[in-house]
Each structure stands twice: as C-alpha cells, then as structure tokens.
C-alpha cells in the first residue's frame, strides 16, 4: 500500500512507520518536529520506500495536499500533546489538533484516500464513571488538550458521514515504550521516571501512587492501527488498551529506585481502564505485551532519556501552577 503518516517522526508515529516499511509498504511521513524527532527515523534511512517531509498540517490544505495523491491509507497522528501547555496555549492546540485535522481530512477527500485512521485520545472520557470504560461512556474533557483531540475525532467522524470518507478512530490509553517523549513540559510519566532514574533522583509519585493507568505497549497500538486499516469497518470508534490497569506504585517497583510524593492534581482520574471488547470483537485485535515485559523492554533503551529534563518536586510545582490555577476548585 501507499501510506501516509502525519506525525510519523513522533513516538507512536515512528513505530508505526517502521512497521509499515518492514511490512513492505511505501510510507510518506509529514512532521514539523514540534514533538517528533528526526532521530526517531534515523534507523530507517536505508528504506528507499520512505519519504520524509518537514511540513506543518496546521498551516492549511495547500502546503500538504499534494502528498496525499494516490495514497491508500492515511494514519493521522500529528498533534500537540500535554496538559499544561494546552491550558496556557489553547489557541495553538486548536490550530494543530482541530484545524490541522480538518486540513488532513480535506486533503484525503480531494484525493479519495481509501482508509483514514485517526489517533484519538482516551482523555476525552475525563474522570469516568464506568470502569472499564466503554466507547459509549460520557465525554468529559478536563483540559484543552483533551477537548481538541475529541473535536478532531468529531471532525473525522463528521467527514466520514457527510463525505463518505472511510474513517476509523482509535482512542488510545496511556501508550508507553521506546522513543516516548523526552522533552517539553512536565506530564508523561515514563519520560519523567526514566530521566529521574538515570540521574539518580527519586521518582516523583503523585498522591499515594495507588492510582492506576491502562499502560498499553506501543507495538500493540501499532497492531491496532494496522488492524483498523485492513478492516472494512467505517465510522467506528475503538478503545485501544492493555485489558488491565496498573498502579503507579507497581511501575515504580518494576523500575526500582527511591520515591518522593507530590500533591495530587485536579482533573486527573484515579483509574484509566479501557473496555476493549468492541475492538476484540470487530477487528480481532487484542494486546500481546504484558506490563512486565514492556517495562523490561523500555529499560533496555533507557539511554534514550539521558538528555531528558530531570524533574524535581520544586520544578514540578512551578511547571504545574497553571494546572492548579485553572483546574483546581
């Protein structure tokens, strides 16, 4: 297939790009490197069927639409992430995550793309009442990042309905693995903990650490993207999770090291846990990588986080002031 991956130099995008290439597909990557890294694709330089284009989907349809010509599958992963900067810069997040998605959809519509897979976020559920959380749960975004990712999903499904585009949206839960984000503002737990481990600093545990997350290994997520692309399902939403939920304390025990506690933050759920019965039933997908195996695999690549910011309780307190200011009661 001729495929296109927006955000293909990012964490999940680079793993997806690698898998597509190794499966024999031709891949065009669009990335502006706001969160992605050129180094994430360095090991793929010898693939002649890879084209990498530095461009920004938020700037309009004209700069990007030519790259969608004769493309079969589009995987739309390009987005701004993190909670704190979305609170400080909501306009930038709307441009990237909502306007950018619309530009991608219009390019797909113009060139009659055969399949469009959107990388949605489980953050749309907010603090869920139903655990495990199904796709039919109420939508309660707690901050602009979650809202803009959900609005992007709404646009994808609307374009699918009105313009008959073959779209599927995957709501991902707490994806982790090699090449996860290292820089930017405080937020991603694995990037934070791994940099602290390398620096010999204590892990900063939010609250008592009993909160749990549906940590889902990146290669399982890539499998889900491919299952969605190969299926005939259209205008569907699927949760993508590990089929379990794991405490932060369990993660710290697996990583090994001292710990220090920091205040619990408003707008964060105590539990994230996907009901993945729908994707199992309709796509035949299920996760393959256990939490222990995934954490062990990420520790083999820990040097990737050697240049990442090393967060301390004091620097976290400063970085999250706007979080408490706007989301606190």
From TrEMBL:
Q: Which Pfam families match?
A: Epimerase
**InterPro entries hit by this protein:** Epimerase_deHydtase, NAD(P)-bd_dom_sf
Q: Which domain of life is it from?
A: Bacteria
| Gene3D superfamilies xref list | NAD(P)-binding Rossmann-like Domain, UDP-galactose 4-epimerase, domain 1
| All copies of domain NAD-dependent epimerase/dehydratase, residue ranges | 4-241
Q: Record's PANTHER family?
A: DTDP-D-GLUCOSE 4,6-DEHYDRATASE-RELATED
Q: Which family does it belong to?
A: Belongs to the NAD(P)-dependent epimerase/dehydratase family.
Kindly provide the name given to this protein in its UniProt entry: NAD-dependent dehydratase
């Amino acid at each position: 297939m001729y495929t296109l991956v927006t955000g293909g130099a990012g964490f999940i995008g680079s793993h997806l790009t690698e898998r597509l290439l190794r499966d024999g597909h031709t891949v065009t990557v669009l990335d502006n490197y706001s969160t992605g890294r050129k180094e994430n694709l360095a090991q793929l330089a010898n693939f002649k069927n890879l084209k990498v284009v530095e461009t920004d989907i938020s700037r309009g349809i004209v700069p990007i639409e030519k790259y969608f010509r004769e493309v079969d599958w589009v995987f739309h992963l390009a987005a701004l992430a993190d909670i704190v900067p979305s609170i400080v810069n909501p306009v930038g997040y709307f441009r990237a995550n909502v306007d950018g998605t619309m530009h991608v959809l219009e390019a797909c519509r113009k060139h009659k793309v055969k399949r469009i897979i959107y990388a949605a976020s489980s953050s749309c559920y907010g603090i869920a009442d139903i655990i495990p959380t199904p796709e039919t749960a109420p939508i309660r975004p707690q901050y602009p990042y979650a809202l803009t990712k959900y609005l992007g999903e709404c646009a994808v499904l609307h374009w699918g309905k009105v313009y008959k585009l073959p779209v599927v949206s995957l709501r991902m839960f707490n994806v982790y693995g090699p090449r996860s984000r290292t820089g930017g503002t405080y937020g991603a737990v694995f990037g934070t903990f791994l940099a602290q481990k390398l620096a010999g600093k204590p892990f900063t545990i939010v609250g008592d650490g009993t909160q749990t997350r549906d940590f889902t290994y990146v290669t399982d997520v890539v499998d889900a993207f491919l299952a969605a692309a190969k299926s005939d399902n259209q205008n569907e939403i699927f949760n993508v999770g590990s089929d379990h939920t794991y405490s932060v304390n369990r993660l710290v025990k697996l990583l090994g090291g001292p710990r220090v506690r920091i205040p619990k933050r408003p707008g964060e759920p105590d539990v994230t846990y996907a009901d993945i019965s729908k994707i199992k039933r309709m796509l035949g997908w299920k996760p393959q990588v256990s939490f222990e195996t995934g954490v062990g695999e990420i520790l083999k690549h820990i040097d990737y986080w050697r240049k990442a910011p090393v967060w301390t309780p004091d620097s976290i307190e400063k970085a999250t002031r706007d979080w408490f200011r706007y989301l606190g009661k």
